[in-house]
Write a structure and sequence with these properties.
The chain has 4 domains: 148 residues, Sandwich (Immunoglobulin-like); 133 residues, Immunoglobulin-like; 111 residues, no CATH class; 68 residues. With 465 residues, the protein is an alpha+beta fold. α1 crosses α5 and α5 runs antiparallel to α6. Strands 2, 5, 6, 7, 9 and 10 form a 6-stranded antiparallel beta sheet that branches. Strands 11, 12, 13, 14, 16 and 19 form a 6-stranded antiparallel beta sheet that branches. The longest helix has 16 residues. It is built from 7 helices and 25 strands.
Length: 465
């Protein structure tokens, strides 16, 4: 998911009571579900519970109809007691309609809906399942319904949301806000903001009381340590109950699990609730970490500060730099070589719009792989200097490798295939010394060594260095 996600609220078509859920073991539809509990009124011990869910629209199968294409979903919600014994269930059908199948290319489009009912205090197990054209998915979770006090300050549970906007119509409407639920509790850094909805009850509005109450957010990491404290926000009291519709930035958060604690204070009274969420690092930041991890093994990869680093940088680029580039590099002083390094990678950046230089990262990944797998004579000859190391650095992972062990007739040899280059090319390597030191003796790749009699050279009767 990313910050451009869209959510579509579908309409419930048919509702009917059933006895048990029919949950398929085929979980080919990804379904997320969650709940929030709100105080109903002072006259009832029951609470209003909302069960909300998300699924990906492009997971559904659509068929032509009179105005475009539609998909039908069969939902079933089963309520069980604290150990799972069924208490009640409800089933319904819902539909999603699109004008063209091309919109399914949007892989981030979410279908979302909410189911609400009154529940008495207690612990329950909820199982929600969905089926669409033979594909199905399900999700099960524990539902804890508290007993709200008639007088003490209290807060509802927290609902995570992709967005919260003022609105006056729609099924996802709550107290003047359209709350688009995030039933997974997972947020990408690209989303930038985590939104949450909650309610406060039994606010003191008696004469002489404060005109405002405060809300504080505390975020704890997976170890239970305080990760971030958001300064208290003061809200004017609208009455005995109030809405908390807010959010906080996660742009600087590390990826991982967190728990947020919401603390409401009204004079000397305090109420709190908490809920877990997770942050998934953005693709860019993940790739940047990977790149930094790779480059840490190569002094001078990011900054040339001395002659040793200058030499290592030259060794690293010797196969991909043009002859005139290497000649220019050799003629420069240290400062000039550092400027050369910057311009060299910038010129080869395949996507300058990203913070990662994909070409540079892939090159150093190949270089590291070559040094780890193709070094010879206990590392005296580094892997990048070997024939196999050079080919790997230049052309990457082979599509296929044919390995042939030594026999009475032939030496050990390998054939590396690259099906995506020049319509399909190969490289023949032979181990003359039987020490895993393979030398390139033939290739059909342009500008590579060629020897049409290479098959004679792998025979045991021939030794050639």
């Amino acid at each position: 998911m990313n910050s451009s996600k869209k959510i579509f609220c579908f309409t419930v078509c048919v509702i009917m009571l059933t006895l048990r859920p029919a949950i398929s073991e085929d979980r080919s539809l990804i379904l997320f579900s969650d709940y929030a509990v709100y105080k109903y009124d002072d006259a009832s011990d029951k609470c209003y519970v909302e069960i909300f869910y998300n699924l990906l629209r492009n997971d559904l199968k659509f068929y032509p109809d009179s105005v475009g294409f539609s998909a039908i979903m069969d939902f079933k919600l089963v309520l069980g007691d604290s150990v799972g014994n069924p208490l009640d269930s409800v089933s319904w059908k819902a539909g999603s309609r699109i004008v063209s199948l091309s919109v399914l290319e949007d892989s981030d489009y979410l279908i979302s809906d909410v189911f609400g009912d009154l529940f008495g205090p207690g612990s329950y197990i909820v199982t929600l399942s969905v089926t669409n054209d033979g594909n199905s998915g399900w999700n099960s979770f524990k539902l804890n319904v508290p007993s709200f006090s008639d007088s003490a300050l209290a807060v509802s549970s927290i609902e995570w949301a992709y967005s919260i906007k003022p609105d006056s119509i729609g099924k996802l409407l709550k107290n003047g806000y359209c709350v688009l639920p995030n039933a997974s509790g997972r947020f990408h850094q690209d989303d930038n903001v985590v939104y949450l909805y909650a309610e406060t009850y039994n606010i003191d509005t008696s004469p002489g009381s404060d005109s405002a109450y405060n809300v504080t957010l505390e975020i704890y990491d997976s170890k239970g340590d305080l990760y971030k404290a958001i300064s208290p926000v003061s809200y004017v009291k609208p009455g005995k109950s109030a809405v908390i519709a807010t959010g906080f930035s996660i742009a600087a958060f590390e990826g991982g699990m967190y728990k947020m604690r919401l603390i409401a204070k009204d004079g000397d009274s305090e109420a709190r609730t908490e809920k877990a969420f997770s942050v998934i690092p953005s693709v860019e930041k993940t790739r940047l970490r990977l790149m930094q991890a790779v480059l840490n093994d190569y002094p001078g990869a990011n900054n040339i500060q001395n002659e040793e680093q200058a030499k290592k940088f030259r060794d690293a680029i010797v196969y991909i730099a043009a002859a005139n580039e290497l000649k220019l590099y050799d003629s420069l002083n240290l400062r000039g070589k550092e400027n050369f390094r910057k311009e060299f990678w910038e010129a080869r950046d395949t996507n300058p719009a990203t913070i990662v230089n994909e070409y540079q990262m892939e090159h150093y990944r190949r270089l590291k792989y070559a040094e780890e797998h193709f070094s010879r004579h206990a590392g005296i000859i580094p892997g990048w200097k070997s024939d196999q190391g050079r080919v790997y650095i230049l052309y990457g992972e082979p599509t296929d490798i044919e390995r042939n062990m030594s026999s009475i007739e032939t030496r050990s040899w390998e054939k590396w295939w690259y099906h995506g280059i020049e319509g399909g090319v190969y490289f023949i390597f032979v181990d003359y010394e039987d020490t895993d030191s393979y030398e390139l003796i033939h290739s059909n790749k342009q500008n590579e060594i060629k020897d049409e009699n290479w098959e004679d050279k792998i025979k045991m009767t021939v030794y050639q260095r």
